[in-house]
Write a structure and sequence with these properties.
The protein is built from four helices and nine strands, in the order H-E-H-E-E-H-E-E-H-E-E-E-E. The chain is an alpha+beta fold. The longest helix has 13 residues, at 20-32.
Amino acid sequence: MIRRLFSSLTKPPIPVQVTNSAWLKIDDILEKREKHIFFFSASSGGCNGFNYDFSLMKMEEYLDEIEKLKHYTLLENGESKIFIDPIAEMLLFGTTIDYIEEDWNKGIFENKFIFIPDKNLVTACGCGVSFTPKSH
């Protein structure tokens, strides 16, 4: 019991969660793009201070940056990889990446990745692509 509790305390928290639906779409995109890598970051702008940036990294970019990227947080699911920008990681902490598919019956009119922030850490705008860290 003590060992299990101790090991859970020493395990670093995962800064970003990825749903199964998002991993499936990421797998599909990476397969079609011949094993590119996703890069998750935040940039200033938007109606609420920061925007979520989720983009593909070309294999050439990855190979050029491999030494730098070993210091980034890496999320993996099989062959799929997401690198999290270390400068933006504290802004992104607690975010869940999900993928939703069009469902007119539910009022969803497009397929897209969505970013669900931890409401205890940030406030988000209505469009869902912009956020502001809360001051504690």
